[in-house]
Amino acid sequence: MDEITLGCDPSPDVKSHDARVALSGKITQRRGYRVSGANLEEARSDLDFGAIRKVLVVDDSRLQRRILVASLRKWGFDVLEAESGDVAMAMCADDPPDLVVSDWIMPGMSGLDFCRAFRALDSEQYSYFILLTSKSEKQEVARGLDAGADDFLIKPLEAGELRARISAGARILDMQRELSEKNRLIESALEELKLAHDAIDKDLIQARKIQESLVPELTREFGKSRVSLLLKPCGHIGGDLVGMFSPGVNRLGFYSIDVSGHGITSAMMTARLGSYLSSTHFDQNVAMEPRFNKFYALLPPEDVAEALNCRLMADAGIEEYFTMAYAIVDLRNGHVKMVQAGHPHPLLLRHDGSTEFLGEGGLPIGLLPNVSFHQTETHLKPGDKLLLYSDGFTECHLADGGLLDEAGLRQMALECAAGRGGSEFLDDMFWKLTQVMSPDEGMGDDVSAVFFEYNGP
């Protein structure tokens, strides 16, 4: 094992590094390396101290400093010296070293006080700190660790042990700096993700405004009767769509649509369907046809479903499909014609308090080619109400672990219908839904509904 043998104190007039090494005592050469500028990098490469490049030696003993400095320079380090803690602090303020080797007992600022002050410096780079001491008691070691020291060396020093401790410190610094670099890269990536998220969020907010424009009116009266709409996406945008249109007096159509999936793709599909069922551009509405170049007539609901199915199946690359309940009403007599394409069964609320679920189910639109859809008919009497809704109601997860299902929807509708109508009824339905849904699941799907109140011709 190498030893650092104390020698005479070298003269300050001696400028040569080799001469200072010789004056400070015999230092055994490792693997035959001589101390010269040409061998420093080779020696360092052989020893491999990783992240440690610059070392600060702090000791009030000039002789001890020179002995340490000689060994450290021999191993390839850039070494600085300080005779006191105060001088060392001034040197570290702007450019902290990678490693500090400091004596514990020094006049003025002790090594312990210097260690505390050094750790208090505002530096992004961690430095390894070794205290030199003749103290080996556990309490003293604990004091040093509390002050911020990383390691200890007991005097008298041996070069081999010093080299081993520095190598251990280098491994720790390498890991710490690698971790810091990874953290920096992660922070940079997170910042880029935040910017991207903010841009997407801004686009989604604008997309929601566009989607809301597809439902310009939430309630509208048609003679004595009234249609009210509810559209609550579970995110910025959703895949549900509700609407109504009337090509003339006493003729009314309204629909509830639920596109498969969620998010942007579903929302784009609702925008497309909104144009197919436009309430303002009748020439683009697939549910109408012109008659005698004077007015538009409502097509049978099953024909509308088949036309929409053909359009979706003709578009290659579109994997989305949708469910729909679409009804037309003759306001003169309350005659309702309706198609149910995979959508939840519409709920009929009679004026006498009785209820009935309508429809026979059917296949979703856009799922299979050449599908026929069947029409359901019923007659409404003044005071009757018809509710079309998405499965965001019936498949809502409740706090007890179950689903709301049709029975729960029926009970909720009866409670809300007592003395309430129009948008107030739908708002009350949605509020009650939020009160019974599971707090863990939350609103996992879009919620939408159409509420038609028939009050006679």
Automatic annotation (TrEMBL):
<dbReference type="Pfam" id="PF00072">
    <property type="entry name" value="Response_reg"/>
</dbReference>
<dbReference type="InterPro" id="IPR036457">
    <property type="entry name" value="PPM-type-like_dom_sf"/>
</dbReference>
<feature type="modified residue" description="4-aspartylphosphate">
    <location>
        <position position="103"/>
    </location>
</feature>
<dbReference type="InterPro" id="IPR001789">
    <property type="entry name" value="Sig_transdc_resp-reg_receiver"/>
</dbReference>
<protein>
    <submittedName>
        <fullName>Fused response regulator/phosphatase</fullName>
    </submittedName>
</protein>
<feature type="domain" description="Response regulatory">
    <location>
        <begin position="54"/>
        <end position="170"/>
    </location>
</feature>
<dbReference type="Pfam" id="PF07228">
    <property type="entry name" value="SpoIIE"/>
</dbReference>
<keyword id="KW-0597">Phosphoprotein</keyword>
<dbReference type="InterPro" id="IPR052016">
    <property type="entry name" value="Bact_Sigma-Reg"/>
</dbReference>
<dbReference type="InterPro" id="IPR001932">
    <property type="entry name" value="PPM-type_phosphatase-like_dom"/>
</dbReference>
<keyword id="KW-0378">Hydrolase</keyword>
<dbReference type="InterPro" id="IPR011006">
    <property type="entry name" value="CheY-like_superfamily"/>
</dbReference>
